[in-house]
Amino acid sequence: MKSAFLSLLLPAWLRAYPRACWPADLSAGVLVAILVIPQSLAYALLAGLPPQYGLYVSIFPVLAYAWFGSSRVQAVGPVAITAIMTYAVLAPLAVPGSAAYLALAAALSLLSGALVLACGLLRLGFLSQLLSRPVASGFISGSAVLIVLSQCKHLLGVPVAGHGVVEQLPALVGALPATNPVTLAIGGGSLLLLALARRYLGGGLRRLGMRGAHADFVVRLQPLLLLLLATLAVSYGELDRRFAVAVIGQIVAGLPPLDWTPPDWGILRLLFVPACTMTLVGMVQNLSMAQALAVKRGERIDANAELRGLGIANLVAGVYGGMPVGGGVSRSAVNVAAGAQTQLASIVTALSTILLVLWAAPWLARLPLAVLAASIVLAAWSMIDLAALRQAWAYDRADACAWLGTACGVIFLGVDVGIGLGVLLSLATLLFHASQPHIAVIGRLPGSEHFRNVDRHRVETLPGVLFLRIDESLFFGNLAAIETRIRQQLAAQPGCRELVLVMSAVNRMDATAVEALAEFDRDLGRSGVRLHLAEVKGPVQDRLQGTALWQELSGEVFLSASAAFDSLATDPAANPG
Question: What is the H or E stretch that residue 405 is in?
């Protein structure tokens, strides 16, 4: 009985854990904990929090996600998008790093976690589809521009006040004469070395005979090695004291005490809209990454279980850590490259991070901020997806405008306004395409029952009969365009007495469309034209029965376009000659 109860408490992956995977998961967990130290510290600073908070949220939130999430290898922790969103939302409300700021960050994580968890429990994973691919790419690209701009002050060693492009860019330009040359040398050199390592090191090592997996590991090791070298240089050269090179400063060793205070209603109400924005972005990013990893590994994920895991992870972060977390692209890539096979690797990562927080914190106090800024800039630069813009422009200008509108909205209006604009642009693009449906004049291919566009194929037609295929569902937003196009086609065929609407692509008709089509049928009757329907889908037909359109239709309802063709070909009314 006791063992059965314990088995219910254990996640499914742990109850059926393959023992052959534990050596790979153990080594991968330790390696990830070491390799993502620079990233964890950097993203905490990017969010306006003390650097150790990046390590804090790499412990218990990671354990929570590993326990409740469904992805076997996705790694959760501080990520660039949520970090920049946290800073953009909270910086106008409190001084970054202050006690009030920390409380707001914890409340934001708690509220966004509760919303994500609610979406998972209510099976609302489909809400992540409110952002189209171009809009999501535009949002990420715009956020990446903000991230790069926010780190320029650390690369140059200058104080810059303000928030967003409108305030920060003029302040940054004005501060250029005060650039710290030593800081610039450290930051610029780090950026150059990281870029060269990412571009050329892996290929060079492969040409020297190193296996691909080992070469990739060495490339991923470069940020940590650079961090150690820069820290040693600052320590032995006294660069922080002699040349005012900015460093992280004293990092509190050990785990923070669990003295969390629930936020009051006023704070939650103030942060509700930003939390909704972070919820949507977190859902899109987490589900996209988890699905991509599952497809690559031949696995499957449960989207709603993913949301529950991410929601609980953020709830834990709100209580213990105080910084929103998400599924990180680079963190997950490191986890996979290190050989992770199951969620046990993330548990080992969290436990290893505890050891780092307890004993390694004092070693990081003299780490120069310029090195962390360089790693952030390089990661953000790779997130700017101009290829998606070019593809959208070549395929669909409306999607390209949505990409540009979202990116510009994020850059100039802020991430919260930008994501809202992105959702509106996604819906506007959808409505635009739906309101301009494709309508084809069709005829029958000789010797067959198939109907095709008369402009693309040699087909048979009937004199006085017009076959039109509507390639869109009918709703109030596209009725005017459809009626205009039908009247244009009727005007082009003055002798037309029979109109057949082929509705094989019509999945739904709203009440407005039914009433409008009934009125259109009566109007056609006064002009001596009969309206017929063909290939009406079952669900649409079920809803049409009992309506005036169905009961008073001037023509007939045919099972197929071919049946309509055969019937009207022999109908004296359609062929009076």
Answer: helix 397-413
Distance CA 94, CA 272 (A): 17
Beta bridge partners of 247: 368
CA distances from 425 to 12, 134, 411 (A): 40, 10, 16
Q: What is the pLDDT of residue 575?
A: 55
* Distance from chain centroid for Cα 295: 17
Q: How far apart are the first and last CA of the chain?
A: 87
State residue 356 phi and psi, 5-degree precision. -65, -45
236-294 pLDDT per residue, tens: 988 988 898 988 877 777 777 776 678 888 888 889 988 888 888 888 778 777 776 77
Percent of the chain with pLDDT over 90: 24
Strands 530-534 and 557-558, sheet pairing? parallel
Reduced to 3 states (helix: H, G, I; strand: E, B; else coil), residue 183 is helix
Q: Please, where are the H alpha helices in 208-337?
A: 212-237, 239-242, 265-297, 303-319, 329-337
- CB burial class (10 A; 0-12, 13-18, 19+) of residue 545? exposed
Residues 345 and 17 sit within 8 Å (Cβ to Cβ): no
Mean pLDDT of 201-227: 81
Q: Which residues pair with 468 in a beta bridge?
A: 441, 501
- The pLDDT assigned to 130 comes to 67
Q: Which residue, 562, 559, 560, 547, is CA-closest to 474?
A: 547
Report the distance separating Cα 431 and Cα 443, nearest Å.
Answer: 29
Give CA separation, 8 vs 1, 14, 300, 387, in Å. Answer: 11, 11, 22, 47
